[in-house]
Amino acid sequence: MTVREYINSNPDVTIAKVKELGKGDVTVDEALDKHIIMSSHNSPEDSSIVELNVC
Predict the structure, then answer these.
(1) To which H or E segment does residue 7 belong?
(2) Rounded to 10 degrees, what is the CA torsion of 11, 12, 14, 20?
(3) Which of the 8 DSSP states describes residue 19?
(4) Which end of the chain has the lower number of beta carbons within 10 A, N or C?
């Protein structure tokens, strides 16, 4: 699934950070067509905030 598809499927989610494999932090715009390899919640109190690892 790409970041774009993830956003369309999960409109209530806030993406706090995106890391691209081998590159480091990138913006959501830069990652829209990248594939998600892992997503994690970075706030235990609020599961709508996620961090994505993409490639």
Answers:
(1) helix 3-9
(2) -40
(3) E
(4) N
